[in-house]
Amino acid sequence: MVTVDFEECLKDSPRFRASIEEVEGDVCELESKLDKLVKLCIGMIDAGKAYNTANRQFVNGVRELAQQSSKDVVIESSLIKFAESLQEMTNYYTILFDQAQRSVKSQLQIFIKEDLRKFKESKKQFDKVSEEKEAALARNAQAARNKQHEVDEATSILTATRKCFRHVVLDYVLQINVLQSKKRSEILKSMLSFMYAHLTFFHQGYDLFSELQPLMKQLGGQLDQLVISIAKEKLDMELKHSTIQQKAALQDFSNDDTKLEYNVDADNGIAMEGYLFKRASNAFKTWNRRWFSIQNNQLVYQKKYKDNPTVVVEDLRLCTVKYCEDVERRFCFEVVSPTKSCMMQADSEKLRQAWIKAVQNSIATAYREKGDDLDKLDSRSSASTGSLDSSGEPRERNLKGDGALQKVLTIAGNSHCCDCGTAEPRWASINLGITLCIQCSGIHRSLGVHFSKVRSLTLDMWEPELLKLMCELGNDVINNIYEARREELGARKPKSGDSRPEIEAYIRAKYVDKRFVLKPSIAEQRSKIMALIRRDKNLGSSLEHLPPRPPPPTPILRPASHLSAAANSEEPSKKALFCPDELDSLFSYFDTSSKLRSIKSADCGTQQSRERNREMWACTASTTSLPDAEPACPVQPERGPAVPQEPKACSPGLQLYWAAYACSLPDMTEAIAHGAEVNWVNAEEDRKTPLIMAVQGGSMVTCEFLLQNSANVNQPDAYSRGPLHHATILGHTGQVCLFLKRGASQNALDVDNRSPLSIAVDTANADIVTLLRLAKMNEEMREAEGPYGQSGDETYQDIFRDFSHIASNDPGRLNRFQSHDS
Hints:
This protein is an alpha+beta fold. The protein has four domains: 234 residues, Up-down Bundle (Substrate Binding Domain Of Dnak, Chain:A, Domain 2), CATH 1.20.1270; 122 residues, PH-domain like (Roll), CATH 2.30.29.30; 114 residues, Annexin V, domain 1 (Orthogonal Bundle), CATH 1.10.220; 301 residues, Alpha Horseshoe (Serine Threonine Protein Phosphatase 5, Tetratricopeptide repeat), CATH 1.25.40. Helices cover 59% and strands 7% of the residues. It has 26 helices and twelve strands. The chain has a seven-stranded antiparallel sheet with strand order 4-3-2-1-7-6-5. Strands 10-9-11 form a three-stranded antiparallel sheet. The protein has a two-stranded antiparallel sheet with strand order 8-12. Strand 3 and strand 4 form a beta hairpin. The relative contact order is 0.05.
């Protein structure tokens, strides 16, 4: 601290002036520092107020969370206690910041405004008197000796000025010394008060949390136990999740949308519940999705959970349920009561059957609970069931269940899973021709349909050609190809009970990476191809043993009577499957655009027309009366494969090409395993594909194998003839039926602008004409019915199922033509 001596101030010595300058600089710097400190204190107080505001909001959030957790006493009580403690700490912060405002801000501001202001005023007075003194001294020194009056005046002014200077300088020095002393006390007093405020704040906080500490320790112990309980619950939930996932996987494998069971003894009184579409009774007949349930012998629905349920049927004893097949939507059924009816739609056929069964069981349960006469109940139940049976479901010509299972499991190796060896497999990969257990079938599904197409042996329908395909291959055949190098590479084949990751890794290595397939050498592949070219065909220097060709077209007009006479003169094996009169009636009914337009325009005529259609198609059994028109141009006989020569370049695609002609499914599978492209094109043989060669080979199973392995059913050769053209030319009725079912285009034209239908007409193949025209008419009917038409007439589907069954089990009945040389 700088002080000024009073004696020196009277002398007004240079030492005094230096001291004054030092003090003035000190005071100026002090004022700057104090101003800065006050501003910082103001900023701290403002930030503290904002902190307190945010802290109060946080405390309110904790209280709201405690209210939301009212069902959990531990959480609610703990959060309320924490909120109270935090609120108390916020109050302590408020006190601290108030003390900072009083002790630092206010006190230092007073010091600056009062004491420093007085110092500045004294300094101004001192500077003024100092200037006057200097002027008086100068005037006194300049007074002339001979001018006594000037000397006297200068002397008197100097005396008065010195007297005033002494008084002012003494006051100024006093003010300086007082300021220097007060500066120390004011600053220390202010900061000490602020520090005591902090001390009080932290003492109060410590006391507060000391009281809270036992509760915090207790909660810490409970939290440890809670963490252990959560870990156990997590394990239980993971186990339940895995169980539900496996259950859902089983439902996926069985192609079931959901598992619904009728439970009349349910605790909540709800026997069955789920989503259904309901048709409104308004003029627009809109469909809305609602949550339906059968409870307390009533059928009710609701839109939202909190909505009061709307009762559809108050007493199920007074209603019946039936299928609805006369609406544009699928899977519909109707619940009819004496006063009203309700049309509903399920998401699948299985769900529809489940709901209908549940309603029927509820009707029976309602009678039992009311104690009504059992005979009356039986009559009502039989009437309800009879209404369902009378609706008539499509008769199944495909094999399902134990029949398919027994046939497939008799093939070598099929009694155990192809990949892990589990006994009694119930699933199959239809493009590979193998049987699988449920775990391996799930892995095969994950590979994608371009690698494996999985189907159930007990739950799915099996078409005859697909079942025959399964019987042509088998696990032993496939494993001989796909596991040829397994032992050489030292790979372990998984067993039943191994973990899913191990089995999945093996299956991917086997079918995706094809790691165990034995790649043949060029010489081996060439030898294989030459053997396939000659296998069972005995091809030599002539073409006499090529696949059967159609007879040459007849260029002259042939009346129907001639055709009938010719048909009567044929051998029994050459007779057609349909009688002329029935097919004349059939074609005259369908093959007119006006009739189709009438079907589309009539409001209620669609179902009646379909019934007339069914009556006519149900009569068809034999041959057709072909149009009495002369062919536009003759159809060239189908040219068989060329005389076998040494192939210029061998490839898996070429092996697949000749294996398809030789009807050798194992060799075809081997070629695909070696990387053959299913739609490979032989540029040296009119750009024919393996599927076209399968047609020429005459095997429907070979065609089915290629189609299941993604062969293009419409890929043409160099003459723009697809597989359907070739099958028609060769008179392979079963193959024509197969291609039409697999989406072959019958509108495609070859280089001569001939469609398969025109070729079949020119070659007088009645059965193929029948199939092509029925397929075309069915397509036209579907287009006439609009975008909401059904997937196809049931009688049309029945006819195609009949053809597939005959082609697979009694192909002799479809052999309408023999080769030229026979």
